[in-house]
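Late entry, evening session. Most of the bench is empty. Finally got around to the prediction I had been postponing all week. Sequence below, unchanged from the version circulated by S.P.
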Amino acid sequence: MAAIAQRISDIAGTLPMGVRMVAVSKYHPASMIEEAYSAGQRIFGESHVQELREKHLCLPEDIEWHFIGHLQTNKVRYIVPFVKLIHSVDSMRLLAEIDRQASRAGRVVDCLLQLHVAVEETKYGFTQGELFAFVKSGEWRRMQHVRLCGLMCMASNVDDEAQVASEFQFAHGVYLRLKREYFADAPYFCECSWGMSDDYPIAINNGSTMVRIGSKIFGPRT
């Protein structure tokens, strides 16, 4: 199998202008992240708070850390001082806690709202109705230490590419409506985070600006 650097180069060569790659490094050792870093990769995604904290302390300071997993409110304080983007905001309560902890840290933290599109009930996120009710309420406008930058979703874990495409297409439609109705004057509301190792080409065809690639870079999780 090709080295990590070659895999990163191969994937990057398939990404259109304006689409960024988040290297999903969860469960992989720091040495593999260093190899990807040496190849020029700077954005890494983790989904466990303790693992992210440990890696943050021992890896280069200019890494852009993204939190991509389900985030519990009682763990927000551990990552807010350094995380660049939280992909998985799935409740008003979570956003309020991120705002509170970011205020204490003297930061503004970028966040994505997680939309539930998959058939699996175990996946997190707002339904479309919940999402529009949340945004329409305007409570987020009073939060000075978070910035809503777009949407994230995870497609169903199925082999049916048409279903996956329809879910991403649905998510992109929700994003466009939010942009038009609530964020037309917010240039930073521009991110659509969907697509992983097995479905990122489909995601790119359906509006993704940020793909989360793990196994295609690092191989099977250890």
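Two things to note before I forget:
The mean pLDDT is 96.
The chain is about 40% helix and 15% strand.
Will write this up properly tomorrow.
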